[in-house]
Write a structure and sequence with these properties.
alpha+beta; 3 strands; 138 residues; 52% helix; 4 helices
Length: 138
């Protein structure tokens, strides 16, 4: 008597289909984190550029923070539910380095389905040094 392999093939196909679905949900869950990291990197870079362009540290800090928030509030897609924090450390003196830090926390879609962690805060930062010719303005 010859056994049918039909039942085994159906079971393998079902397992493969479930694996493909879980893999697809896992890949889709990375999109918000990737988009949030891209936005945070752009904001930190813009902040650092504005920080290095002003000879007045107090004014530079205000302008840098403002441009970072404007960058984050631009028309980015897939940013719903992402939280951001911005820290700006202006240069301590003429020609000194300043720092812009943008922290973000992106939600994890399909968390209940996949059993992933809640995620942690991540950071993107840039160090900016005032341009030499502006450091001599004092």
């Amino acid at each position: 008597m010859r056994r049918s392999e039909r039942g085994q093939a159906m079971a393998e196909t079902t397992l493969f289909a479930m694996l493909a679905v879980i893999l697809a949900f896992g890949l889709l869950s990375w999109i918000p984190t990737h988009r949030a990291r891209t936005a945070a990197t752009a904001a930190a870079y813009a902040c650092a550029q504005f920080l290095s362009q002003s000879p007045d540290p107090a004014r530079a800090e205000n302008n840098a923070r403002l441009i970072a928030w404007q960058t984050l509030n631009a028309d980015w897609s897939a940013m719903l539910g992402v939280e951001y924090r911005i820290e700006v450390q202006p240069p301590s003196g003429a020609g000194e380095a300043g720092r812009c830090l943008v922290s973000f926390h992106a939600p994890v879609p399909f968390n209940g389905l996949l059993g992933l962690s809640q995620g942690t805060w991540s950071d993107e930062w840039f160090v900016s040094r005032s341009e030499t010719w502006k450091a001599r303005w004092r």
